[in-house]
Amino acid sequence: MIVPKNCIIECMRHRILITFLIIVTACAPKPDPNIQIQMAVASTLAAIPKDTAAPVPTTYPPPTPFDLKGLFCEYQFCIGHPIDMAFYDVSAQQNAASPSTYSQGLLAAFNGNLFIQVVWQASPGASDPQFMLDLILDAGLDTRVGNLDVKLIRDMNVIYIPITTTASPLLPFGGAGAWICGDRAFAWKVYTPGESSAQALFDTAFSRFMCSR
Fold first, then answer.
1. What is the pLDDT of residues 10-48, one digit of tens each?
2. Which position has the higher pLDDT, 151 or 28?
3. I need a surface site. Which of 26, 43, 135, 149 has the fewest CB within 10 A?
4. Rounded to whole angstroms, how far apart are CA atoms 134 and 152?
5. 114: Cα separation from own chain's centroid
6. CA geometry: angle at 111 spanning 157 and 136, to 5°?
7. CA 154 to chain centre
8. Which CATH number does the domain housing residue 75 bear?
9. Is 140 a domain residue?
């Protein structure tokens, strides 16, 4: 069977185009983790139902009790979370070809009362987790308030700071923590409706944290 010359030329063009796309994809720069985190916050908070606007109360409501019996375990670490929430892999959702791994990742979970985020990256030799707070806090949305709490918990350097945020009018308060475990650095952030629950959420979530070292 004789293949027409124009078919051979068209096949060659397709092969060249596929080869070019493979090269371009392989050489594409890795996404900036700060941009990934900002996109995750924006897309996740956009999915939270918006309540009907109401007059601003003169006093804050009492703190809502949260049940942190849930436990997320993957990527060779575990961390506590409310039982009615589930973490999803933000990295995989944004790019199915680049899911979270042992070396780096980004998780988020939310419901109408909470937004939680966890990020980690390989940081062999690091001892001060301050840079992870800088990574997870959005300078355009989050404001640090109060004093930085520094502790040594189960031989891990842990820091925590209360925050306020303009990310969502329903969740104006929160807190963020960061720590070093083995050859990785972790950070955690929560947005809450009241100012008194963030610290307890972090303490309870971190009390169940484990990682392979």
1. 444 444 333 333 333 344 444 555 555 556 566 555 554
2. 151
3. 26
4. 20
5. 13
6. 35
7. 23
8. 3.40.1000.10
9. yes
15 within a domain of the structure (yes/no): no
Q: What confidence tens digit (pLDDT) does each residue in 97-140 have? A: 789 999 999 999 998 889 999 999 999 999 999 999 999 999 89
What total of structural domains would you count in the chain?
1
Question: Which residues touch 19 (CB under 8 Å, ≥6 apart)?
Answer: none
Instruction: Return the CA Rg of the chain.
Output: 22
Q: How many residues does the chain have?
A: 213
Please, which residues bridge with residue 150 across strands? 159
Q: What are phi and psi of 159, to 5 degrees?
A: -130, 150
d(CA 117, CA 44): 10
93 inside domain: yes
pLDDT at 208 over 50: yes
CB-CB contact of 173 with 200 (8 Å) = no
Q: Answer whether 186's CB lies under 8 Å from 126's CB.
A: no
The CB density around residue 174, as the number of other CB atoms within 10 Å, is: 29
